[in-house]
Structure formats: C-alpha cells, structure tokens
Amino acid sequence: MLHPKLGRVLNVVYCHAVVFGLVSTTLRIRSHRKCIRLDKVSRTYTFYSFFVGIFLFLNLYYVVPQIVQDGYMKSNIVLQWSFFAMLLLRVVAIVACYGTLWLKRHQIIRLYKNSLTYWKRFGHIMKALVDRKELLDLQASLAKIIVRKIALLYAAFLCSTVLQYQLLGVNNKQSLLALSARLTHFLHSLSVKMAFYGILVLLHHQFLVIHLAINALHGRKAQKKWKSLRSVASMHLQTLRLARRIFGLYDVINATMFINMFMTGINILYHAVQFSNSTIKADGWGILFGNGLIVFNFWGTLMLMEMLDNVVTSCNNTGQQLRQFSDIPKVGTRMQKELDVFTMQLRRNRLFYKIGGIVELDKPACLSYIGSILSNVVILMQFDLRRQRVPNNDHQYFTHLFNKTEM
Question: Which residues cross the membrane (predicted)?
C-alpha cells in the first residue's frame, strides 16, 4: 500500500540516482502491478556507472585554469585556496562515491534483495493492524516533506547557476565549458543528497508505521494480541538492522557529503562577505540570488539534519508508545511476556548515526556544525582584513604557475 504522491516522488529520486550511476543495479518498477524487482541489466549499468564517474573526474580539468586566471578569484588568494580545497574535496567525493559502489557492489545488491524481502514480509502488518486512512495520510505528509526538500535543492542550484554565470570574467567557449563542468558537479551533489533523502524517508516511514501499529494494537479488543505484538517487535528489530546496514554501507559517501556541505557553507558565506564589501561587484540580481543561495543552502542543511534526527528519534522513542499498555487493567501472561521482551529489545538496541564512525550526528552536533561554519568564516574575514591592510603579491602565485605551465 503506497500513496500515489509518495510513489511519484520516490520515482523522481530513483531516476536522479540512476542517471548519475548512484545505484549498483537498476530496479524494475511496475506500478500498475505493484511489483518491484531487481533488473537483469546490472552488468551493463555497472559499466555506465564507471563511465559516469570517469567523466565527472576528468571534467574537473576544465574548471581550474579558467577560474584562476580569468575569473574573479585571481586577485584574492583566500578565494583561490578555498576553490582548490573545494576541488580536492570534490575529487575525494567522486572517488568515495563510485569507489563504494564498485567495491561493495555485491553487498549493496544483497541489501536491495533483503530490503525487497523485508517489504514483502512485513507488508501484512500494515494491512492487518494499521488503518488504511492513517497510513495514507502518513505517506502523503512524507511526500510533502520530500517535495519541499527537492524544491530547496533545485532552488539553491538555480541561485548558484545564476551567480556562477554572473561571476564569469569573460564569456567565451572556455568559460562556458568551465561553467558547465561545475554545474554538472552541482547536479551530482544534488542527486547524492536526494538519494539520502529518499533513504531517510523510507526508514522514517517504517518507524512511524510501527508507532501506528502499536497504537492500533492498544485499542484493539481481541484475543491473541501477543502474536501481533511479537510481529511488531520483529518488524522494529529488522528495520533497525536495515538502517544500520544502510548507514554502514554508505558511511564513506555520507561522510564526504557532509564535509562538502561544510566547506560549501563556508565558501558561500565568505563570498557573501566579498559581495558586501564590494570586493566582488554585483548588481541587484546578483544580490537577490546571492541571498537566496544563502537561505536555501542553510535551510536545506537544517532540514537534512532534522530528517536524520527524526529517523533516529522515531526509532528510539518506540518505547514511549509501549507505555500506553500500562493503563490496561488486566494483561494476559503471554501479552505481558511479549511486552517485557519488546521493552528489553528496545533498551539493548538503539539507533544512532555517526559520521565516519566517529562523530555522532544529533541536534547538539547540528548546532556545533553550523557554529563551526560561522567561526571559520569569521577567521577568514580577519585574514582578509589583514591582507587588505598589508598588500602583498601572493595572489600572483597561481597566475605565474599556470603561465609557466602553458609555456
């Protein structure tokens, strides 16, 4: 049972992932028969994914000379070093993304198979326990959430495209080629974030369905409720294990995604400082789209953190739903036993998300994440003020380096 709106949105997410080769094998989706299975062209798609990764890696070559020599960065060494740091992170992100997909291809395909088995196995719980209208309302609300997130991603991409075009020093074939190369990488980052959104929405949906099943089971007056509660407990444990496997397999990709988001936030705010002090000239449209880029970028970052926190919280707060069984005056022996087993299971198995297995990402970490971006921008501002007071010729370094290379 899947709401048509949520199904269409997930298809959009899936198509973005397929175009940029972000899945290890394709799926065959037949909505009219409600059938989803692995496609048989996985080897062909693997070669396609390989060429996409090589293409993204090679087209970075067209970005560097144009930006450093003819662009707005040629007189600011801070912007130059920031650009090369972002370029290095893009290389790391591409290698991590497609390296994970190629090296762990069989594990990811096995995860797909297990996920399809999981959906078929526990589908009867949603039909038997959860009210159809409540389930459809839940799926419609999740569809609205992911549509807003996709809209934010494309709004940030539009603002970034306009600004990148205005910042071109010379409009020629080389500069337009460099702009196209950068936009291709922006679209790749957008697809990676969108795929992460889709995974989080599916996990959030399953944990919320478990909550609905527990609520429906509490108000249900029927014998042998303990069997249904055992099925719900099994579903929760399998969903938690599935979430852990997903977070583990895509850990390197997600870590590079968050690092790139961190550096992108610093870069955007530092560019805003350059616009504000007229170091970079801008007209009214540039200021408008620049402010829009700041708002949409940080809004999207906060919404991503919120969605991740909602998934973790909905998993770990399942025990709060079980507390409502304490108001039942008389509970059978088997029912009490299943409640005790489920409660012990929830205490021993808690979901958390760590970047690279080191930093746990929660609400306090989110605030530290945003605070670190602001702190680094303030440090760069201090360096920029000092550079303006003490003129130097460091900004000529990269220009001489590329001139010497061409000779």
Answer: 6-24, 45-63, 83-103, 150-168, 194-217, 247-273, 285-304
